[in-house]
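user: At home tonight, take the chain set out below, taking as long as you need, and be ready to discuss the fold:
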Amino acid sequence: MQANPDEAQMNSSQATDRPLPLAGIRVIEFTHMVMGPTCGMILADLGAEVIKIEPPGGDRTRKLPGLGIGFFRSFNRNKKSVVLDLQTPQGLETAIELIGQCDVLLENFRPGMMETLGLGEATLRQRYPRLIYVSHKGFLPGPYENRLALDEVVQMMGGLAYMTGPEGRPLRAGTSVNDIMGGMFGAIGVLAALRERDTTGKGQEVQSALFENCVFLSAQHMQQFSMTGEAPPPMPSRVSAWSVYDVFPLADDAQLFIAAVSDKQFLTLCQLLDAPELTREPQFATNAERVAVRPELLQRLGAILQFHRLEELVPKLEAAGLPYAPIMRPDQLLDDVHLRASGGIAGMRTEDGSQTDVVLLPLMMGGRRLGVRQALPAIGEHTEEILARLQSEASNDSRE
């Protein structure tokens, strides 16, 4: 199922036609893969004009295979594409002139690359003191800062893979969590720096890093150790705070996550499953007592639930107000009734003229979703437009 891009665009702004929050802010983006493009996409969705600089032939992210095939379309909407060869004096000088007309610069290349090109923060700061320079890196300054990093690398270093997999089997999360969140923190830094520039008149450098992002995700488990003196076990081996909080096999090889996190919810679940005998046994009287015998309780619930059909059980859990969740694949989410009805998925014209569905930012502002305003850019689609404006604005500056 595909959304109508015109209808999706109309729905995203139906609450009001007022300008988007970052209208008038201009961003130049030297990024690839996920982290930097995520930051640029957030700013673009919020209304900034984002100019993506691509090398001749285009960003290699456009052509990634396998699990990377969706990166470019997922994180580069609402941007303009300009092709510049930064390895040539003319291309580099054009880039520097474009930077001077922008409020924000985004980059996420390997340590030292921007400095080698002559586009480092210190160099540009002397020329453009109001510029907000955002670096998306593997590590913030420190002993690790010159290491190359990937999402999977920092998941292993930052405690996430250990907490996700079974004991002895560290397992990365099933999506680029640190890349995406790192881009989000970059965008948060941009918003704060823009606000501060309103007061000081000066730009600043913002740094966001994969490793520190992953450690932030693990912070609650670090604090758990600080408070208990015991290293937290991986999530598959965790001691749950709630007795019923698990995935249960149902009839026809279906699965369903079901939770009962209070005594009242446990009573409701037992009534729903026609298992009142569980509520009369003293070892199941309170949540704390149930946690103490959790394996036995889950075994007994599992023996009951294995005969229930998913399509019959879900309406009952919904009506009872109990927490539950079917186990969904990403492809199934394209037809999720809530995402469709709430406007969380919108149509977008791609660089080859076809249509696709994209997931919008998970927030509303003033009753509106921040939608797709323009097609995904083809390689260098806006080069002529942006460079013509550059010449025009330079001419105007010379006359003033």
